[in-house]
Specification:
Layout: H1 11-33, H2 40-61, H3 69-91, H4 107-140
Helix pairs in contact: 1-3, 1-4, 2-3, 2-4
Length: about 140
C-alpha cells in the first residue's frame, strides 16, 4: 500500500472508528437476536441514530470520488449494518408503548441497546470530524 502515503489522514484513528462502529453493531445485533422489547423511548433514540446515520451516509456519498474512498468504504460498512439492524428492531413485533408492560428480564437488553446507541452518537462526532479531515485532504491535493 504505497499509494496511501500520499494521504495524510490518520489511518489508525479511522481503523479504531471502524472497529468501534463494528462493536456497536455487534451490540445492536445481539439485541436484535434476543428479540428485545423496545418502548417509545428507545424508538425515539433509534430514530435519532437513524437520522444521524443518514447524514453520515450523505457525507460519505458526497466524497465518493476521493482517493481515500477505500477508507471511507470501510467506515460506511458497519454504519450501513447498524442501520439495517435498527430497522429490523423497529419492524419487529417487539415494540410496546411503555416499560410498565415489560417482563423484568428484558430491561437488560434495553440498557444494552441504549448504551450502544449512545456510544454511536458519541463516536459519530469523531467520525464526522474524520470525514471532514479526509475531505480537506482531498481539497489540498
Amino acid at each position: 500500500g504505497v499509494e496511501e502515503d500520499s494521504i495524510s489522514v490518520d489511518i489508525p484513528s479511522t481503523e479504531s472508528l471502524v472497529q468501534t462502529m463494528t462493536e456497536i453493531h455487534k451490540e445492536i445485533q445481539q439485541v436484535e437476536a434476543e428479540k428485545v422489547i423496545v418502548d417509545s423511548e428507545e424508538i425515539s433514540l433509534i430514530m435519532e441514530v437513524d437520522k444521524e446515520i443518514h447524514s453520515i451516509q450523505d457525507s460519505i456519498r458526497s466524497m465518493e470520488n476521493v482517493p481515500v474512498a477505500q477508507v471511507v468504504k470501510e467506515i460506511s460498512k458497519p454504519i450501513d449494518e447498524i442501520e439495517k439492524s435498527l430497522h429490523t428492531i423497529l419492524a419487529s413485533e417487539k415494540v410496546i408503548e411503555s416499560k410498565g408492560q415489560l417482563p423484568a428480564d428484558v430491561n437488560y437488553n434495553i440498557d444494552s441497546l441504549e448504551n450502544a446507541l449512545e456510544r454511536f452518537i458519541n463516536v459519530e462526532i469523531d467520525l464526522l470530524a474524520t470525514l471532514e479531515v479526509i475531505d480537506e485532504v482531498k481539497l489540498k491535493e
